[in-house]
Every structure is written in structure tokens, then in C-alpha cells.
Automatic annotation (TrEMBL), chains A, B, C, D:
GO terms for molecular function: N-acetyl-gamma-glutamyl-phosphate reductase activity; NAD binding; NADP+ binding. The gene is argC. This is N-acetyl-gamma-glutamyl-phosphate reductase. It catalyses: N-acetyl-L-glutamate 5-semialdehyde + phosphate + NADP(+) = N-acetyl-L-glutamyl 5-phosphate + NADPH + H(+). Residues 6-145 form the Semialdehyde dehydrogenase NAD-binding domain.
């Protein structure tokens, strides 16, 4: 197989960008031809990331849509909130395909974006044009698209865990409570007290309770699946580890269900989707079991005593929660097998 | 102040026992005169715990109630489930005061014990005689008692977090969901795959979902506070850290409340109790902030969007969740200030 | 490229074996056709390693050379000391190619093996027949060989760091001191107190000082490079991390050298060897920069004040220190490009 | 015992300062009456350190020698390099006793200070007046002194490990090599890439090889013990843990020695010094075994094969390596028992 597509990565010096470099290096049909960083333009990428020594010898490019067009067919935006909304119009005008890993194009309502992100939203027509690339739910809609909004890390773990039960009406969506936990890489590479090793190691913290910007993103899809507006309770915690997200989710079952029924429902719902793995009854997924991979593993407990369902869902936040799903979206957009370049075994232990 | 009480510790080679040694070394009125281990009897304690080198030079004693009587006035049982139920009668017959850190005497119903622990329960009269030493809830009842059942680690974090809101009827107890997380020391010192460093580090796991033996202990007290039988949903997770428990708790508010009202309710409820600290609105407690100490720190978010209350409560599982509360219980039983020997600053970072 | 070689892995339930599964899954010319475990024969491999769910559905085979012959062309032995010495004769008789990851065939002297391993050695003719597969030093000798002894993890990091300076006589080999540090996965998956999370986390330990069985392996090659018998001082430490080895090495320079001279010597010595990366002056390699990869990164400081050279060398103990180098050895033995299946980017962070 | 001494802490918002607060809270004769921070003056200390909630309710004071005099008898300086050299004259003029935890007064040569610290040194008369408070070596000289320079963390672990063997001439001081490892808290609370959790976790790094500013401090004392100028090779590494330092030290034995002889030499040398614990032959100290305490534990291996001695020494860098030794120095200066307020059991695990 020869390279068919040239890719540029904007935000190459963040964790999402560098993970894209790792994944695309193993992709049989894509070559990364430009790594771009507004802050370190002109420097060798291996200076800030010595693990790339002798693997990538690029100097970092600056942000210039025309130049990107000369070097690339697709652009991945691994940029902070507020950047993509400004860059996207020019990139699309240049005829570039865009996969945006930020939150800028995920919410269909610009108003909601402004409320939760505290920044001006992208123009409405781009919000409309962007397809929300939660691959296992909306993969069909991604095919052939030019502008893809890659989902957030928490929404990915959470929505994959809830979708079948909500869509089938097996749980009452008004009772959903989401208790989410993330490794520290989710906070990005910026140095501050909350990512300081000595403050984070041997520590477990809650943060942004009821205030995380991923809440409207989760509710937007839950509402769509339920067919009516849904609000949820969502808590985020910081785990002393680098990678991994677990969502533990609770809801009232609309009628009693055996765990085996749920397992079968989920396997049916995700049939043919290689990256969702439903666990056997009583076997709980752990974050390390998907480390470095694009898998989302899901387990259940249906509790007859309380009438509640507990769902546990895990992903690697930098892969399925960011760079991996972005590559999967590109595969889907191109009409390729969605596993291309992602078909590897998690590193364990 | 001179030593007034001699203490023996059964199970001195477990994490609970060795933490008792650390805490009682700083207690102004208690001296540990016998450290007891059925498995390592005859060996110097510093052999298995080199951090005690030149601090404690004892040889470990075997388990013998008569010998304990000769050496001690109070016995702490830091033993696995099923041991205390057999030892307690002889110890009480010898006139010894007993603080049991195991689960053997916590449930008033022997039947429930058998269901959740899978072992025969203690005789009913001992279950009845034992006072459940959740100090901030039942401290008055502990005074002068001979047989104290020290609460479990998860129930301590959970019940201190829920009690005021349940007792005052501010939340609907039927809607309570408890998402709990613990450091690895909670699993004890036994070596097995689930405590292996390489399996636990950089990993976050759920375990015993809906099946943890602390569930009936939590429900027993919640039911008492609510005045009717309560069942709850309770999930436990393993965090890659050594010490610390966080309980994140959810429930429907019976009527809208501002966070400040909750803070005031809790401060009132725990007035004069030095080891419960209620945080300011928006400041979430983290486990490291109570590390090595007997504190339980609690924070709140009342969510107008969903009508739900989120409570976050943290303890050090080996201190407030085990050895520290055991010392606090002894203090209360003796009529001393409950902070004696426990009045120190958490180690940070 | 189609599969040309079928591989069996004996010891598939250890960390070395499961890492071979991960790496060979990405190899374009090798297919793993049998995963073998004496202890778990008959069980699905994903039971003990849920990260392999739906990736490998094999039941574990038992150890039977005839059966291996039917299923495989090459056998990887990822077994404890003392197993390979017994298995190898039958495997060779069956015409199988063998890569042994254990220490059984590394020392040319059976007597030394017995002294350091405390077990009877393999027969002398197998010790002689086996080629010591330190790829960057002896790669030429591996080509076409049937029996390859894969080097130990510490010797790999250490010898790659020392070889050029010793071979060229730039350091006095009698003054070499090796201070080595390893992650916990090096101790294997067996559960015991020294790998217990709570004993290892937030802890740094020395162990087996001057007594590690890798000492004679290091000295055997150093002596060969120096042309006379060399003894060294070698200390091992346990780092609270899962993967990674660093060797910090000290020796007296035979004459003053600038760091740049050393960098050039090493680059020349390892020219064309893709997996050794020499760092720029003043840039020290860290274990995370080779995590999950087959790289060995090396840095230097030549100290004019003391006349000593300090060399820092890092590898991933499970990859370059075990399974990765084993695959590299197979590549060399087959006459393939040594990077086949190993040409990926380290996962960072 | 009642409070006899009032203490002020300058630099209360660094890890050294906050550790002083923890330790002095348990001191029977000292009360902390002023916590001082130039950067956060006016703020409640518990804002930046919530673990102090309801324990210390102080507002942070600004730096004002006159005000300190009004509130305190002794001042601890836990400040960055370059601050103490400027503050000390005014503090001494006010009649305050000073314990300086920074490096400003440790080197007798101002020139050396300038070379290694890159800052102007303190005036020569203060360098002369300051006593170097390595308690177990120079404790006698500390008694009654007004200006104490508290040793660095690495020098403490290193010099306590080397002193007896150097002083007695059992090792050749010209052959000393020091391989040191530290937890991340040694880097202070400042947020930067090298203390970022995701960069540090599951990572082991070397840094400042041959360039650490503690080198001249170590050499100054070694030279004094050896009676002639000594230079050493000293490497520092960053361990993924919060607290703890290990120094692994190597030197040639001047004549063959059994380990037991060394143990006896060291026990004799440190007789009566409670905070140095010499381990039995074959038992290696680990950092967790001194965690949170003022102990320095030391072990040995004398290697007949190489004629070299290996010494392993561990401390808690924030206690014996900083705040704990500072309190010990105050005790010695006051003529009190050196263990006052420091006589507790390490927290384990």
C-alpha cells in the first residue's frame, strides 16, 4: 500500500498532537508532511520531545493555511478552545479536509458554547457543516465529509457506555448520573500547580463538579438518543496516572434486566464495530487494559436490590478520546476500513 | 502526663496494626506493651517492618488472652474477618477492653453478616453489646463502653458525608448513589495479582460493584438516620495510590438548597467535632489533604439544573478509616479528649 | 508482504511473553500460531490478560515439542531460569529455531551459571551452540543461526552504553562502576511483598547489591571487549514505575576527552544501527523517552575535574531488554531488516 | 512543658516551609507565631494549603525584620538561593536567632558559591559566623550559636553515609563516586515541565550531571574529614515519587573489610545519635522506611571481588534533608535533647 494522503498537524507540541504523530507513523495510507506549532515554530520537534529523536527531524512550521495547502490534503487541529473556530474557514476555503480535535465545533448551539466555554462560538454555518464524529454512533454520517468535529474524551467514554441503553429505552435518561475519572494527561502539557507531580501523586481530587464543558456535549447526544431534552449530573476526578478515563454511570432500569440481556443488547448494537468490546458479566474493565489503544471496553451490573444499572466504560483519553478517534474519523471520511493504522494491541503492563 | 493505659495490638503485621503502633507511639496516655501476630510470633517486628528499626525492638507475641491480660488493659483487634468473633468472648472474660477494627461486630444482624461476609457471625449478645463507634455520630454512646466496633473505611467516609443531609431530610435517601474510590493499602498487605505494582500503577479499576461487604454497614446507619429501611447503590474503585478514600455521593434534594445552606447545616451538625472539616463552596477536598491524619473533609455542589446534591468526602483509610478512629474511640471510651494523640498536621505533599 | 514464519511463545502468561504477543501482532512476516503456558494450559489467554479480549481468542497450549513443531517454525522461550536448558535439546531436534529470553544460555561457562543462578547449567554443547544476541554488538553472528540466547535487560542497557569506550580503550575497564535502576515489571508477574503496590509506590530500594545474576553476563562481554578478564561493581535498584531501565555508568578516562569526541565515537561505532540513539551533549535520556519501544538512548558527561566519564543509558526493559530484542534477533537470524515489526514511535507521555 | 520559644518561618508557602509548620506543631517547646511569604502576604495560609484548614488560620505576613522581632525569637529561612544572604544581617541585628535552610551560608568560600550558584555570595563575615549544622557530625559546634546553616538534602544523605569510612581512612577518598536519587518535592513547588505529572510519572531521569550546586558542599566536608582537598563524581536523578533521597556511594577500600566491621565502625561513630540507624548486613534501606521522619538509614556491601565498598543511605529530603534537621539544629542550639518534636514513627506504608 502506498501513501495516498498527506496530513498536517496543528498543535504538534501538545499531547494530542504528539499522539497523532505516533499513530499516523503507523498508518499505511497517510504521511505526516507538516507539524505545526504557533509557539515553537522553527524549532526541531525532537527538542521538546526527545522521544522523537531520529524519528522525526522536522522543524516545526508556523500556522499558514496557504502553506498547509501546499503540503497537505488533511489538517488535524489539536489546538486549545477558540483556535479552530477561527482557522476552519480559511482551511476549508483552501480545499483542505479538516478534523478538529478541540471543542469548537461539537455543540450545535453557539449559545451553549459561549455559556460553557466562555468564548465566542464559531459561525453557525460551520457548526452546522461539522459532523460530530462519535464513530460508533454516527460513523455513517462521517463518510465523505470535509469537516469533522472529533468528540471530547469524557463524552466518548460516557456516550459509548450509555447509548444502547438510552436508545432502546432500557434506562430512564432522567436518572443518569455520571462519575468520571481521568489521568493527568487530559489536562494538557501546560505546567501549573494542579499538574505538579508532588501535588498529584498519591492524591485523588474532584474538580469542576457540575461545571465541566463536556456536560452540554454529553447532553446534546443523550437528548438526541432519548428524543427529548436530557440533563445529567456529571462529576470529574483527577487520578494519579498519566492516561486513561473511566466513566462509572448509574441509571434506573425501566424494567428488571439480567446482566446477560444487557451484554447481548450492547453486542448487537455495536456489532461490527471493532473498537468497542463488551465484557463478560462480572468482569470489570480497567483503564490499563486499553492503554495506548483505540478500544473502549464496557461492563455492567444490574442490581435487583435497587433497580439500578451500573455501567463502567474505559478508554485511553489520548487515543480513543482524542488522536485515535481522529484517525478513525479520517478513515471513515475516506471510506477506508476504520481500523487502518489503529489495529494494534494495548501495551500491558 | 504519665501513661495510664497499656495496650496490646493483635494483627500487628497488617497495615492497620502497624498504623496503630505509629499513632499510639504519639499518644500521651497509652503505651503499647504487646504486639501480637499469629503468623510471625517470636520474630522481631522490625524484621518485617524495617521502618521500626530501633524504635520498637519487641518480639511478636502469640495470641493468648491470659497473657494479654497480664500485659494490657485494652486490646485492639486488627485482624481479618472471622477472628474477632472468636476472640472477643475470652478477652471480655479477662476483663479487657476491646476495640475491634474488623467487620465482625459492625452489623447488628448476624444473618446479614453471614450473607455479605460468607462466614458464621459472632454470637448475638456480642453483636448487641458492641457499640458502633462512628465517633462523630455515636460518640456519646461510646463513653465507658468495654466493646467497641470500629467502623469500616468506606462507611466512615460515606456516612460522615451523608448523615446531616439524611438526618435533616434535605435529600431523598432512596436516591442515594455512592461512588467510592480507595488507595491500594485498603486491600491489606497480602500479595496477589490485584495488588501487584505493575498491574495497579497507571491503572484505575472498579471492583466488587454492588457486592462490597461495607454495603449493609452503610445501609444500617442510613436506615437508622432516615427512620426506615434504605438500600443504596455503592461502587468501589481502586486508585493507583497507597492511602486515601474519596466517596462521591449523589442524591436528589427534597427542596432547592444553596451550597451555603448545606455548609452551615454540616458545620452545625458537626459542631465541636474537630476531625470533620467542612470546605468552603467551590473548594473540593482531595485525599492528600488528609494524608496520614484523622480528618474527614467534606465539600458540596447543589445543582439547580438537576435538583441533585453532590457530596465529596475524603479520609485517610488507615487513619480515620481504621487505626485513627480506633484511637479516637478509645479516647471517647475513657472519657478523654477525643483528639488525644491524634492532634497533628497532615503530611503534605 | 505475507506471513512467512509461524511462531510459538512458551511462557505466554509472563510479561515477556505477553509483550512478544503485542510486538509480533505488528510484524509483517511472522504470525503467532501457538501461545503456550505450563501453568494455565487450556484457559483462554484473555482470561488472565483482558487487554487481549477479542484480539487473541486462543486457548493456551501445554508444553509439547512435537505439537510445537506441527504449529510453528520458531519458538520463543520466555520462561524462568532452568526451563530452557531442559527444553532446548528437544526443540532443536524437532528442527525448530529457538530464541531463548531466559538466562540459561547466556554464559559460556556452565560453572559460572551454577554459581550465580544456583541451578544446574545447560549441556556445554548448547552453551557453545547458542549465539549471544546483543544485536548491535554481535548482530553479524546471529544471521542464519538456529539457537539464539537473548541478552538480559540490565546487560543490554549497560553493554550498549559501555562497549564503544571499552573497545576503543578510552576508559579503564578496571574502574567501571554500574549503578542500575529498573521498573517493577522486571521482577515478573509473580505476586510477593516486594512487588506489592503499597510497598513499592513512593519508595526507592536497592536490592541484590553485588549479587545480581546479570553480573557475570556483563563481565563476560566486557572481558571480551577489553581483551582480558574484567570484574565490575554493579548495583540494582527498584524504581516506582512499571517499565524502564537506566544504567548510570562511571569509569576513569584513559586520557582527557571532550563530550563531543565521545558522541562522535559512539555514533561511528553504532552507525547504521537504528535502535541506538546518541544524545547531544547536555541532553540526558529519560526512560519515558524509549517507553514501549526498542530504542536504547545514550548520553555522556566527561568531567575534567575528576577525569571520569559518566554514561547514561536507557531502555524499555520489556522491549529492548527482552521481547523487542528477541524479535530483532529473529529478524537478524532470518536475514531480514532488523527493524521489521519494531519500527514504531515510543508512546509519550 | 510550656512554650519557651516563638518561631517565624519565612518562605511558608514552599515545601520546606510547610514541613516546618507540620513539625513545629508537634514540638513541645516551640510555637510558630508568624508565617511569612513575600509572594502571598495577606492571604490565609490554608488557601494555598487546604490541608491546614482549621489547623492554622493565620494570614501570611510580609517580610519585615522589625515585625519578626516583635513576634519571634528564632527565624527559619526556607527561601530560594540569594534571599538569606540579604536578610541575615538585619535579622541578627535585631537579635534574632536564625536557621537558614537555603544554600547561602553553607560554603565557606564566597567564590565557590558564586561559581556554583551563579549569584553574589553573602558577606564573608556571615559565611564565617554561620555554623554548618550537619548535626551528627558537627552537633557540638551548634550549641549556643545564633546563625546556623542547615545542610542540603543530598549532602545530608551523602555525608552521613561517607563520614565514618573517610574519617577513619577505610576508603580512598579519591575514588568516591556518588549516585544520588531524589523524589520530585526536592525541586520545589514551582510549576514547570520537569515537575509536570505526565512527564515525571513512569519516568526516571538524570539531571545536572557533575553540575549540581551540592557538589562543593559535599566536597567541603569530605576534604575536612580527609584532611586534604577531595573532588568527587556526583550524579543526581529524579525518581517518580514525592519524598525521599537515596545516595548510593562507591569507593575503594584501603584494605579488605568484612561488612560486620563496617557496621560496627558506623555504630560506634554514631553512638548516641538517635537519627542514624545502621542496618544489619544484607538488609538495604529503602526510602519509604524513613518517610516523613528525621531518620537516616545506612547499609553496606563490601565486595571482595572488586575491593570496593558500596554504601546506601536514605533520608526523607523534606525532613532530615531540610525541615527536620533544621528543628534538630534548633534543639542543639538551645541545648535541648536533639529529638524534641522529632521523635515519631515513620508513616508506613
Amino acid at each position: 500500500m502506498h501513501t495516498e494522503l498527506r496530513a498536517a498537524i496543528v498543535g504538534s507540541t501538545g499531547y494530542g498532537g504528539v499522539e497523532l504523530i505516533r499513530l499516523l507513523a503507523a498508518h499505511p495510507r497517510v504521511a505526516v508532511t507538516s507539524v505545526i506549532s504557533s509557539s515553537s515554530s522553527g524549532e526541531p520537534i525532537a527538542k521538546g520531545y526527545p522521544h522523537l529523536t531520529e524519528i522525526r527531524t522536522d522543524l516545526l512550521d508556523g500556522v499558514d493555511p496557504g502553506e498547509m495547502r501546499a503540503k497537505a490534503d488533511v489538517v488535524f487541529l489539536a489546538t486549545p478552545a477558540g483556535v479552530a473556530s477561527k482557522l476552519v474557514p480559511a482551511l476549508l476555503d483552501e480545499g483542505l479536509k479538516v478534523v478538529d480535535l478541540s471543542g469548537d465545533l461539537r455543540l450545535k448551539s453557539g449559545e451553549l458554547y459561549e455559556t460553557w466555554y466562555g468564548k465566542p462560538p464559531a459561525e453557525a454555518r460551520y457548526l452546522e457543516q461539522a459532523v460530530y464524529g462519535m464513530c460508533e454512533l454516527y460513523g455513517e454520517q462521517v463518510r465523505g465529509r470535509e469537516l469533522i468535529s472529533n468528540p471530547g474524551c469524557y463524552p466518548t467514554a460516557t456516550l459509548l457506555g450509555l447509548a444502547p441503553a438510552v436508545a432502546e429505552g432500557w434506562i430512564d435518561p432522567d436518572t443518569i448520573i455520571i462519575d468520571a475519572k481521568s489521568g493527568v494527561s487530559g489536562a494538557g502539557r501546560g505546567a501549573n500547580l494542579s499538574t505538579h507531580y508532588a501535588e498529584t501523586n498519591e492524591n485523588f481530587k474532584a474538580y469542576k463538579v457540575n461545571k465541566h464543558q463536556h456536560i452540554p456535549e454529553i447532553e446534546q447526544t443523550l437528548s438526541q438518543l432519548a428524543g427529548r431534552p436530557i440533563v445529567t449530573t456529571f462529576t470529574t476526578h483527577l487520578v494519579p496516572m498519566t492516561r486513561g478515563i473511566m466513566s462509572t454511570m448509574y441509571a434506573r432500569l425501566t424494567e428488571p434486566r439480567a446482566e446477560q440481556e444487557l451484554i447481548e443488547l450492547y453486542r448487537r448494537y455495536y456489532e461490527g464495530r471493532r473498537f468497542v468490546r463488551i465484557r463478560e458479566a462480572g468482569q470489570w474493565p480497567a483503564t490499563k487494559e486499553v492503554w495506548g489503544s483505540n478500544y473502549c471496553d464496557i461492563g455492567f451490573a444490574a442490581d435487583a436490590r435497587t433497580g439500578r444499572l451500573t455501567i463502567v466504560s474505559v478508554i485511553d483519553n489520548l487515543v480513543k478520546g482524542a488522536a485515535g478517534q481522529a484517525v478513525q474519523n479520517l478513515n471513515l471520511a475516506m471510506g477506508w476500513d476504520e481500523t487502518l493504522g489503529l489495529d494494534f494491541v494495548p501495551a500491558y503492563p
